[in-house]
Amino acid sequence: MGKIAFGMTTSLDGYINDRRGGFGWGHVSEDVHRFTQTEQEREGLAIYGRRMYETMVYWDTADQDESLAPSIRDFSRVWQAVDKLVVSKSLEKVTSKRTRLVRELSADDLRRLKAETDPGRRSPLRTL
């Protein structure tokens, strides 16, 4: 049985985005990328809402940009390897690999995903 872990990036004053709704307010150092990469490597399934998915889908191709630092390209490859579930009623389709779109996700769905997730990183997306 897998574990459920919640991750949230916020500024010191408790916000995740700026006044315009953007996420570009924070500088992510190489150390932060490496830490996040280590955490991401342990995930069997990442669950996103529409707006966070639209931000994170950047990582589906970032590893192809040779002008980026190796730590950024490495994180991109790790992000691509994790199964992703996007919960949205408004998103038309997902464009990244290993990603499935659902319109809703109930507490029972989460319980089943948790029970069916192998701690060794096998995702239960096929059952949803």
TrEMBL record:
This is Dihydrofolate reductase.
